[in-house]
Amino acid sequence: MTDAPFQRARSPEAKARRRADILSAARAILDQEGSEAVTLQEIATRAGIVKSNIYRYFESREDILVELLLSDMAEMNDALADMDSADRGAEATARCIADAFVARPRFCLLVSLLAPTLEHNISPERLRAIKLQLLSEQKRAVASVCARCPDLRPDAAAEWTNMVFVLAAGLWPMTHPGPALARVLEAPEFAAFKLPFEDQFHSAALAALRGYIAGSGPDRTG
């Protein structure tokens, strides 16, 4: 936070910097303290602006967090596109995608919050724009999957990528309990509830992918 007097951003460049500062502040809070600590007041404090100024750039706290999710998803797709796709087949594809999620815990957390929390305090117009961005990023993910798994039809690849998101959304909170539950699960009788995210995610993604490959006959969209 700066000690300089607050000045409203007026030029397009200044507005872009201010927007980036807000996102950077939210990202830092999320990484350091968790999602519950991400409040508009804390974001404003870290970004060196007044809280009300945030509404010039984002509709709500949830809108900011969704923007972080979209940014992380785009970065992940960039990384997948740059990877060598020489290793092909179900096992290699599932491992590649699973590793991409595992390497991005913030993204997994945001995916788990998207449907139950983040999409509930955003206007319909903004939600439509978000969904269009998600569709665009999904198409990029499908292209990466198809390059690695030629036995999978594009429509089946799209269904599988959706399934992978559902798996991440469900498994992340189950494998990352809060402090109180984590202490309870230390008891030996609850060992079955202590699930490793990486192993569970990869196994489930691979099983689902094999099912989609087995069902890949003539294109159902035709």
Automatic annotation (TrEMBL):
Single Gene Ontology MF annotation: DNA-binding transcription factor activity
Record keywords, A-Z: DNA-binding, Transcription, Transcription regulation
PROSITE patterns noted in UniProt: HTH_TETR_2 (PS50977)
DNA-binding region in chain numbering: 39-58
Pfam families assigned: TetR_C_34, TetR_N
Keyword Transcription carried by entry: yes
SUPFAM superfamilies documented for this protein: Homeodomain-like
InterPro entries hit by this protein: Homeodomain-like_sf (IPR009057), HTH-type_TetR-like_transc_reg (IPR050109), HTH_TetR (IPR001647), TetR_C_34 (IPR041483)
Organism domain of life: Bacteria
Residue span(s) of domain HTH tetR-type: 16-76
Protein name: TetR family transcriptional regulator
Taxonomic source organism: Oceanomicrobium pacificus
